[in-house]
Amino acid sequence: MTSVTSELAETLERVVGAPITGLHRLSAGASRETWALNAAGRELILRRDPPEAPDTAGMAREADCFRACARAGVPVPTLVAHGDGTDGIGSPYLLMERLDGEALPHRLLRADRWASVRPKLVHQFGEILGRIHAIDPAELPRLEEIDDPLTLLRESHAAFGEDRPAMELIFRRLDRTRPEPVPSTLVHGDFRNGNLLIDDGGVRAVLDWELAHIGDPREDLGWLCARAWRFGEAPEVGGFGSYEELLASYGRATGTDPDPEAVRWWEAYACARWAVFCRIQAERHLGGTEQSVEMAVLGRRMAEAEHDALLALGLTGAEVVRDPLRDPVPDEQPALYDRPTVDELLNAVTGFLREELTTEDPRSAYLAKVAANALTIVRREMRLGPGERAMHSARLAVIGCADDGELAARIRNGTVSDDDPYVIAAVRSSITAQVTVANPRYLAPAGRGRRA
C-alpha cells in the first residue's frame, strides 16, 4: 500500500467510522478516480475528483441525483456519504455501496455468461429512462438547464481554436435539421453501455451521474444509441438490440412515443458530443492539468467520433481498410542509425507492454495497454503520414482551399454548401485517413471483426 493509499484509508476510516481494508484504485473512470474498499465487511466504492481538478458543485449535484432517483425507483447504488474533500478525502467525492454485477461492455456483449441476460436489456433501458425522465426537475434545483446544447457544443469546440472541417460540416448539418423541441426533463447525460451495472436480472444500477442536467429527454436515447457504445457489435442500442425495441419500451413507460427521426438526430449529436469530449479529456493532459497516457490517447479517438457522426448523418460509410502495420516501413535514405530501426524499437516496446509486462494492479495493467496503443498509433503515422499530408493538400486544392483553416471557415460561414460533394469527399477522406492511423478496424462494418 502506497503512502497516498494509506493516508486515504485512514481518512475513510474517520468518515465511515469503521476499519478500512482492501483499498485499491480501479481502472474504470477517465474523468474521476474510482476506488474499491471494505469497511468492516461492507463493500463500498469511492468516486472522487482528481485532486488537481476539483468540482465541488458538480459532485453535490450528482449526490442530489442519487437521492432523487432512489425516491423514484431508478436503480442506483445507496449513497453512504459525500463531501467537498475538506474532511481529508482530498477532493469532492461520493461514497456508495458496491453492488455485484458487470459493467465492462466487452464482457457483457460477448461472454457466454451474459447470453441469457442480453435480450432483456434494451427493454429495461427504455423503462429505466422513462423513470428518470419522469422525475420532476423541481426536485433538482441545482442542476443546469440546457436549452441549446448544440450551440454550447460548438462553443466548446471553438474554444480550442483548432481547424477541423469535419466538425464544422457536422455542426452545419445538425443545425439545419434540428427536431422540434419537447418539454425538458432530467437527463442522465451519460446513459450507455459501460455506465450500467448488469446482474442476472438485468440492470442492477445506473452509474456515473456527473453529466446530469435538465434538457431534452431524447438526448439520453440518442446517446445510448451512439456507435461508440456498441463496441463493434451490430445492434443499434449499445450492441444489445434495435431502435424499435428501445422506443417501444420507452413509449410504454412514458405514454409518449418519440419520433425515431428525432432520436436519430440526437444520435448524430451524441457522436459530435463524444468528439468534443475526447478533445476536452486530451486537454487535461496537453494543458498539464493531469499528465496521463489515457487522456493523451483519447485525443486521437476524436476522429472515430467524427466518423460516427458523418456515418449517422449519411455522409460517409463503413469500409474495410488494411492495417498499415501489415506493410513494411518505407525505406529511409540514407540510413544514419543502426538496427533496430525506430519502428522496430517501438514494436519491441509495444510487445513488452502488451505481452510481457505483468502487474497485479488492474489500473497499471490497463494503462500499459493504452500505452501500447499509443505506440501503435505512432507506428502507423510513421508509415502513412507524409503521403497522406500530400494527398490531403491535393484534395483541398480541388475545392480551392489552401488549408484546413480555410475550409473550416468556409463551411462555418456558409460560403460553401454542406451538400457540396467535393467538400464532403475531402472531409470524408481526411477522417478516414485519421481513423486508419488511430484504429483501422473501427472503420469496418459491424460483424466484420471491428472492435472498438
From TrEMBL:
Domain Aminoglycoside phosphotransferase per the UniProt entry, residue ranges: 24-266
Domain DUF6285: 361-442
Record-linked CDD domains: ACAD10_11_N-like
PANTHER family referenced in this protein's UniProt entry, alphabetically: AMINOGLYCOSIDE PHOSPHOTRANSFERASE-RELATED-RELATED, BLR2944 PROTEIN
Identification of the protein by name: Phosphotransferase family protein
Species name: Nocardia xishanensis
